[in-house]
Amino acid sequence: MKGAAIIIGASGGIGNALADALEEEGEYSEVIRLGRSMGGDNHIDITDEASVESAAARLTQKHIAPSLVITATGLLHKNENGPEKNLKELEAGWLLENYAVNAIGPALIAKRFLPLMPRNKPCVFAAISARVGSISDNRLGGWYGYRASKAALNMMIRNIAIEWKRQNDRSVAVALHPGTVDTSLSKPFQNNVKPSSLFDAERAALQLLDVIDDLKPVDSGKIFAWDGEEIQP
């Protein structure tokens, strides 16, 4: 049996579905759910490094060495703020919040959680990214903060993969694009999405886990879509 699986953002739609699917599959020794809206030992705020450090310390005290860590967090809209359509809509505070959640948070998770993972066994660190974070795939523009922060996340993953390989050449760090999933994150933007391209959270979770199951060390540092297609940075 594999070591523990940790889902960060488990109170969200994709995160909760990932945790449920992992528990049902039963391939990991335990599935640990962490989230900002969760209490006690399950609480974590990825925008607060002290909170991330405390969560990692609690796992260390319990001698948990996870073989899978998935950061299933993301920010696209909040209250009156949403993806910018043009330069006139840029606002410094909202841009910073996008980076804090979409790029800096997952990087802090890697900083504190990778040391918990095995050094001589296969293990995977994955973060939910987005196809719109691909610079080479950008044809429409707009969505400045979300695109740029997800592009920054993809670069973080690449850096993490290079450094982590020096410590464990059987490790994999990847960014994953889940497609358009029927969650609160995508809800305001679903009108132009074909029904066949809108996944419920349960299906999205299973598709992402299938991609993870097929990963090899040579895939580390890359970005993959829900169907296993590699996305160029």
Could you characterize what this model shows?
- Helix 1 (13-25) packs across helix 5, helix 2 (49-61) packs parallel to helix 3 and helix 3 (92-113) packs parallel to helix 4 (144-165).
- The longest helix has 22 residues, at 92-113.
- The protein has helices spanning 13-25, 49-61, 92-113, 144-165, 201-213, and strands spanning 5-8, 31-34, 68-71, 123-128, 171-177, 180-181, 198-199, 223-225, 230-231.
- With 233 residues, the chain is of the alpha/beta class.
- Helices cover 36% and strands 15% of the residues.
Show unreliable segments.
Answer: none
Largest sheet: 7 strands, mixed
Tell me, briefly, the overall form.
globular
The SSE order reads EHEHEHEHEEEHEE
State mean pLDDT (0 to 100 scale).
Answer: 95
Structural class: alpha/beta
Radius of gyration: 17 Å
Order the strands across the largest sheet as they lie in space. Answer: 2-1-3-4-5-8-9
H/I helix tally: 5
Count of individual beta strands: 9
% residues in beta strands: 5-15%
Distance between the termini: 34 Å
Helix content: 25-40%
Short account of what is shown:
The protein has 233 residues and is α/β, with parallel strands linked by helices. The chain has five helices and nine strands, in the order βαβαβαβαβββαββ.
